[in-house]
UniProtKB/TrEMBL annotation:
Its main location: membrane. This is DMT family transporter. It is found in: Cell membrane. It is a multi-pass membrane protein. Belongs to the EamA transporter family. Residues 8-138, 147-278 form the EamA domain. Pfam families: EamA. It comes from Kribbella alba. The chain crosses the membrane at residues 37-54, 95-115, 122-143, 149-168, 180-201, 207-225, 237-255, 261-278. Keywords: Cell membrane, Membrane, Transmembrane, Transmembrane helix.
Length: 295
C-alpha cells in the first residue's frame, strides 16, 4: 500500500537529490588523484558494510524473487555509476549534474515501453519543461563531447533503475533491497578496478570525502530512495529527482570552481517549475501513470 501523504516521499527524494548533488564537485576533485573504479569500489564497500552492520538479517529475509531483482538493480546502478563517473572526468561538475538529470526524459519513455502504461499529459508537460531546462543548462551548441555522451548513457541506465525500483520496492523490503543492491554495486565497481590495481585515498581530506559520499550520499540515500519509490510512480519520482542537478550546480558554485550564469538560473528555474507542476497537478493524473507492481 502507498502512504496517504505521498508528499512525504517527494520530500524524502528531494533530500536524496541534495545529497547526490553535493557529490559532483567532491568527486570531480577526487578523480584527479584516484581512478574511477577504485573510488567507486571503496565508496560502495564502506556503504555496504554500514548497511549490513545496521541490520544484518535484512538480506536474508528477502524472498528469492526479491533477491534476483536486487541483483538486477544493483548491476544496472553499478554500471551507471562507472559510466557517469568516467564522464565526469571529461566535463564540468554542473554540466555532468544536468545531463545526468536527463533520466527525467528516459523514465516515462522507457516506462511506457516496458510496463505498457499510458503517461498522463501533466507528466509530459513536466518532462518537457525539465528537458528544456536541462538543455539550457548543459548543451553547448549542437554537439556533445565524450563526457556528455557518457553521462547521457548513464542517465538511461538510471532511468531503468528508477523504473525497476518503483515497480519492485515495498516498505517491507526497502532495507534488504538497499543492502543487496549496495553489495552488488560494490562487486561491479570492484571488477572495474581489477585491471589497473587498487589504490586508496592519499590524505585525510580525501578519506573524509569518500566516507561522506559512502554513508550519506550512498547508504542513507539509497535506503531513502528505495523507501520513497515504494510510495510513488516512477515518473513522479524521476521528476522530483531532477532537483539533483540544481543542487549539483548550487554546490559547485558555493564550494567548487563554477560561477553563476544566466543559463544556470534560467535552466534551474525551468527544472524547479517542472517539479512544482507535478505537485500541483491533479493527483489522479500521476497515480494512474505507472502502477507499482504487486508481489
Amino acid at each position: 500500500m502507498r502512504v496517504t501523504h505521498p508528499r512525504i516521499a517527494v520530500l524524502a527524494l528531494l533530500a536524496v537529490a541534495a545529497a547526490w548533488g553535493s557529490t559532483f564537485f567532491l568527486t570531480k576533485d577526487l578523480l584527479t588523484r584516484m581512478d574511477v573504479a577504485d573510488y567507486l569500489a571503496l565508496r560502495f564497500a564502506i556503504a555496504s558494510v554500514a548497511l549490513i552492520l545496521i541490520r544484518p538479517p535484512a538480506i536474508g529475509r528477502l524472498s528469492r524473487l526479491d533477491r534476483g531483482r536486487g541483483v538486477a538493480l544493483g548491476i544496472t546502478y553499478g554500471i551507471a555509476q562507472l559510466v557517469q563517473t568516467e564522464g565526469l572526468r571529461h566535463t564540468s561538475a554542473s554540466v555532468s549534474g544536468f545531463v545526468t538529470g536527463m533520466y527525467v526524459v528516459f523514465t516515462p519513455l522507457l516506462a511506457a515501453v516496458i510496463l505498457r502504461h499510458k503517461i498522463g499529459r501533466w507528466a509530459w508537460v513536466a518532462v518537457a519543461l525539465a528537458t528544456i531546462g536541462l538543455g539550457v543548462l548543459s548543451l553547448r551548441g549542437f554537439s556533445l563531447g565524450t563526457g556528455e555522451l557518457l553521462t547521457l548513457a548513464s542517465a538511461g541506465l538510471y532511468a531503468l533503475h528508477i523504473i525497476g525500483l518503483g515497480a519492485w520496492s515495498t516498505p517491507s523490503n526497502a532495507f534488504g533491497l538497499s543492502s543487496l543492491q549496495m553489495l552488488v554495486i560494490t562487486a561491479v565497481c570492484a571488477v572495474g578496478a581489477i585491471p589497473g590495481g587498487f589504490t586508496l585515498p592519499s590524505g585525510g581530506g580525501d578519506w573524509a570525502a569518500v566516507v561522506y559520499m559512502a554513508l550519506i550520499a550512498g547508504a542513507l540515500a539509497l535506503i531513502v530512495q528505495t523507501w520513497a519509490q515504494a510510495h510513488l510512480t516512477p515518473t513522479r519520482a524521476a521528476i522530483a529527482m531532477t532537483m539533483e542537478p540544481v543542487f549539483a550546480s548550487a554546490f559547485a558554485v558555493l564550494f567548487g570552481t563554477d560561477s553563476v550564469t544566466g543559463r544556470m538560473l534560467i535552466g534551474g528555474a525551468l527544472v524547479m517549475t517542472a517539479m512544482y507542476l507535478v505537485e500541483l497537478a491533479p493527483r489522479r493524473k500521476f497515480e494512474a501513470e505507472v502502477q507499482h507492481l504487486a508481489q
